[in-house]
């Protein structure tokens, strides 16, 4: 299927989502891999990991053009090689998503809602967070919290953040899509963020953005 959405959130920030339905050879024809990309690609032994790698490059090409290149720092955080935009990348099962911006910090996460997430919710929820008791909405509600926390972890770009202790999603009524608020508090960080969520098929997707302020 390829790119299922390329949405301009504003004049400087783009959100794209790719659904992987192509064969590897088809995706290879869609991208222009440089020497570093080819080396990384060949290092992957599983088909699924190669498909993920190629889908990220295909989506980035769709969003920014074939010359766009991703590099990673020592913590495996992605950056654009030319430094022109902030970028955040996520992948789960058959979906890949990217958000990038010229002047806003960004974070995004998506998850295929397959597991019994309630069994390990204690690992990421804290006492301030409230989950619906409606059994038809509970799984989605939990996944929104998980994706929101991952998005906030990414946008803060800091080591040593505890997803359970340092990140809090304010209570909200779960809907098909909506806006929620989250906070990150550590010894070095005290920031609030607006987050946006929606459901696509059996996926929960959450993203956040905030104007970059140089220090």
Overview in brief:
It is built from four helices and eleven strands. The chain is of the alpha+beta class.
Record keyword descriptors for this entry.
25% helix, alpha+beta, four-stranded antiparallel sheet, Ribosomal Protein L22, Chain A, 2 domains, 215 residues, 4 helices, five-stranded antiparallel sheet
How is this structure best described in words?
With 215 residues, the protein is an alpha+beta fold. The chain has helices at residues 24-30, 35-43, 47-64, 138-156; strands at residues 2-8, 13-19, 70-72, 78-80, 86-92, 95-101, 104-112, 167-169, 177-185, 190-200, 203-211. Helix 1 (24-30) runs parallel beside helix 3 (47-64). It is globular and about 50 Å long.
Largest sheet: 5 strands, antiparallel
Q: What is the 3D shape?
A: globular
Q: Helix- and strand-based class?
A: alpha+beta
Q: Which series of helices and strands comes N to C?
A: EEHHHEEEEEHEEEE
How many individual domains? 2
Summarize the SSE layout with pairings.
Blueprint: E1 2-8, E2 13-19, H1 24-30, H2 35-43, H3 47-64, E3 70-72, E4 78-80, E5 86-92, E6 95-101, E7 104-112, H4 138-156, E8 167-169, E9 177-185, E10 190-200, E11 203-211
Antiparallel strand pairs: 1-2, 2-6, 3-4, 5-6, 7-11, 8-9, 9-10, 10-11
């Amino acid at each position: 299927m390829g790119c299922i959405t390329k949405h301009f959130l504003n004049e400087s920030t783009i959100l794209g989502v790719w659904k992987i339905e192509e064969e590897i050879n088809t995706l290879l024809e869609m991208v222009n891999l440089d020497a570093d990309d080819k080396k990384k690609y060949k290092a992957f032994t599983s088909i699924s990991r190669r498909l993920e790698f190629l889908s990220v490059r295909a989506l980035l090409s769709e969003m920014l053009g074939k010359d766009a290149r991703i590099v990673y720092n020592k913590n495996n955080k992605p950056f654009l090689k030319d430094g022109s935009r902030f970028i955040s990348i996520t992948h789960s099962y058959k979906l890949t998503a990217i958000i990038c911006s010229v002047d806003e910090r960004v974070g995004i996460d998506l998850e295929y809602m397959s597991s019994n997430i309630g069994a390990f919710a204690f690992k990421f929820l804290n006492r301030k967070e409230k989950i619906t008791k409606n059994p038809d909405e509970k799984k989605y509600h939990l996944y929104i919290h998980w994706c929101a926390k991952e998005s906030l972890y990414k946008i803060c770009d800091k080591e040593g953040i505890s997803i359970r202790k340092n990140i809090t999603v304010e209570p909200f009524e779960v809907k098909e899509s909506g806006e929620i608020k989250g906070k990150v508090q550590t010894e070095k960080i005290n920031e609030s963020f607006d987050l946006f969520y929606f459901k696509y098929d059996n996926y929960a997707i959450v993203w956040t953005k905030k104007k970059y302020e140089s220090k």
